[in-house]
């Protein structure tokens, strides 16, 4: 007897690593939704979003975006460009050297967040969604559609880690949560950008100029936001926009091009900064500009101590105070017991030398300590300085600093007949008092940047990096650790004192309360250290950008009242969790925190 068998038909299982999106719709449909939704969001900005001008920005006009509509327009246009590049549209390939999908997700998410923040704010402030005009409904639906489409774009899902079969409920939950976070990270991850091809020198210089021009426009817009809702929307758009540009690989390409022309990039950055006062109609925002430069210059000096030499200094703001008090005492203030009025160059030397002396005096007996012990000693020095100047009032001690009243009525600087305290007309532009000090502080910042670059690339700079990485190994190789650390301490203190001499004249008054370890407004030691860590330790641009953000954001978030520091601290915690190496890290620190990153082909002397 013959038995006939029939092969059983089996359905092929999908490959375990088949790319798929977070939302289960076809990839081609998701891409179409993201593109169409982003384009429709751009169109909606030319419609009215509300019927009344009571909402800030007056979003009642047709054909003329205003206020938060401009931010949605920028975000939507960026998302649309990335979506078109993902289709392989000719002429847009340069936008996505690292791939388009991750950039699309960031750009669409930022546009969605800004648009829905605006719609919700209108509804809450004006009393319900009935206050929305058709444009408000259109932008809400368009950005939601685009977000759904973007989240459907495929990506490589990571395999879950094995789990113990006998794991309890909590262990199972933490395992699933960790895998979910890994999937989310993979969904927004991008590939390595392709190498940027070598262009003619003039073309690369034009690209650098364009990047600096965009940076100046963004900074000017952010610092000039006139109401709270607009600044919050600016933060959302700028944050997600930077993330989209970074995921697309454009930031990496711009960094490679600027690295080929470092001197031109640095000079161009200072020229762009010098143009800032000319973009303002009054002296209001130049005030923020000069304070940001003072804070950034001191942070860059601290970066030598912390970023290059690896010395944790928690009392660094005291050196700023030493320079400010020394300059105030010899600048002709009626509160000064010395009764002398030195010219600017002499006052600068006095402030810098005084900070240098204090740096050496404090560093010599303490720099043999390491780690937490050194941090505690420097923290004590900062408090000792504040208490000392508070007590030298003629009652508790000698009459030098006028105690808690400080040294007041510090006269404005007069350099070669140019009075920085009065407005001047330059090329049809009126340059006010704070703009004058902005230019002076910009010059001092350039000096500090020059010192940082030269010292970082010198023999002493390489010794600082060796001490930072492994002090024991550096000592074994013959490096005089104590001398090297003392030089770093002295140089950092001198640069802080240099900035303090200008701060004394800008603020008219120096008091002990300006130089605390921690406070609600910078500069103080905690904010200075945060600026270095946030921006990127061991780099030049990192502390400058970190200081600008740490000064500008609290100034603009004053409407939060008692919750200001809570929101600010939460933002710092999230940033340190997801980008611990800082906003602009050097390559070595980036590899320390992200082992899966590609190793650099070349490291500079300071690891940058």
Automatic annotation (TrEMBL):
Organism this protein belongs to: Streptomyces tunisiensis
Alphabetical list of InterPro entries matching this protein: ABC_transp_permease (IPR001851), LivM-like (IPR043428)
Pfam families from the UniProt entry: BPD_transp_2
Matches recorded under CDD domains: TM_PBP1_LivM_like
Mode of membrane association: Multi-pass membrane protein
Source organism, top-level taxon: Bacteria
Compartments in which it is found: Cell membrane
The protein's name in its UniProt record: Branched-chain amino acid ABC transporter permease
Residue spans crossing the bilayer: 32-54, 66-85, 106-124, 136-155, 202-224, 230-250, 262-279, 285-307, 314-332, 344-364, 371-389, 434-452, 486-506, 526-553, 560-578
Alphabetical keyword list: Cell membrane, Membrane, Transmembrane, Transmembrane helix
Major location (coarse): membrane
């Amino acid at each position: 007897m013959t038995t006939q068998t029939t092969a059983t038909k089996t359905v092929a299982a999908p490959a375990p690593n088949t790319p798929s999106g977070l939302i289960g719709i076809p990839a081609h449909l998701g891409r179409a939704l993201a593109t169409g939704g982003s384009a429709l969001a751009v169109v909606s900005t030319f419609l009215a979003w509300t019927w009344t001008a009571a909402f800030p920005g007056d979003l009642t006009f047709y054909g003329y975006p205003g206020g938060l509509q401009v931010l949605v327009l920028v975000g939507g246009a960026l998302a649309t460009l990335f979506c078109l590049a993902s289709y392989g549209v000719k002429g847009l390939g340069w936008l996505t050297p690292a791939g388009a999908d991750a950039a699309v997700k960031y750009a669409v998410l930022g546009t969605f967040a800004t648009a829905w923040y605006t719609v919700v704010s209108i509804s809450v402030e004006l009393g319900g969604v009935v206050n929305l005009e058709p444009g408000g409904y259109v932008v809400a639906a368009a950005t939601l559609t685009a977000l759904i489409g973007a989240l459907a774009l495929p990506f490589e899902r990571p395999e879950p880690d094995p789990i113990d079969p006998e794991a309890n409920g909590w262990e199972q939950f933490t395992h699933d949560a960790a895998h979910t976070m890994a999937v989310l990270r993979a969904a927004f991850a991008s590939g390595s950008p392709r190498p940027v091809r070598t262009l003619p020198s003039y073309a690369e210089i034009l690209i650098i100029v364009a990047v600096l021009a965009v940076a100046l426009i963004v900074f000017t817009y952010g610092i000039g936001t006139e109401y709270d809702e607009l600044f919050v929307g600016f933060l959302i758009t700028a944050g997600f926009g930077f993330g989209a540009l970074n995921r697309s690989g454009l930031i990496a390409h711009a960094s490679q091009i600027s690295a080929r022309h470092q001197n031109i990039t640095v000079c161009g950055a200072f020229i762009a900064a010098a143009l800032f006062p000319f973009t303002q109609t009054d002296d209001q925002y130049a005030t923020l500009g000069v304070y940001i430069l003072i804070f950034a210059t001191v942070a860059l000096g601290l970066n030598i101590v912390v970023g290059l030499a690896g010395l944790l200094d928690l009392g660094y703001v005291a050196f700023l105070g030493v320079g400010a008090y020394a300059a105030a005492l010899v600048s002709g203030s009626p509160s000064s017991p010395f009764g002398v009025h030195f010219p600017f160059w002499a006052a600068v030397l006095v402030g810098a030398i005084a900070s240098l002396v204090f740096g050496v005096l404090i560093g010599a007996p303490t720099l043999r300590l390491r780690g937490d012990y050194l941090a505690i000693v420097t923290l004590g020095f900062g408090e000792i300085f504040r208490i000392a100047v508070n007590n030298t009032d003629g009652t508790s001690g000698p009459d030098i600093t006028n105690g808690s009243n400080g040294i007041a009525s510090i006269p404005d600087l007069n350099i070669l007949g140019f009075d920085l305290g009065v407005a001047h007309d330059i090329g049809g532009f009126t340059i006010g008092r704070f703009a004058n000090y902005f230019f002076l502080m910009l010059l001092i910042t350039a000096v500090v940047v020059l010192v940082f670059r030269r010292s970082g690339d010198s023999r002493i700079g390489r010794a600082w990096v060796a001490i930072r990485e492994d002090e024991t190994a550096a000592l074994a190789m013959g490096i005089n650790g104590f001398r090297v650390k003392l030089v770093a301490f002295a140089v950092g203190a001198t640069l802080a004192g240099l900035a303090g001499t200008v701060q004394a004249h800008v603020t008219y008054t120096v008091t002990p309360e300006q130089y605390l370890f921690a406070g609600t407004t910078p500069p103080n030691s905690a904010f200075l250290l945060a600026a270095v860590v946030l921006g990127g330790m061991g780099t030049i641009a990192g502390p400058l950008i970190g200081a600008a953000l740490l000064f500008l954001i609290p100034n603009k978030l004053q409407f939060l009242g008692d919750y200001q520091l809570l929101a600010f601290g939460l933002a710092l915690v999230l940033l340190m969790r997801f980008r611990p190496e800082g906003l602009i890290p050097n390559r070595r620190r980036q590899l320390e925190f992200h082992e899966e990153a590609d190793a650099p082909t070349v490291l500079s002397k300071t690891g940058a």
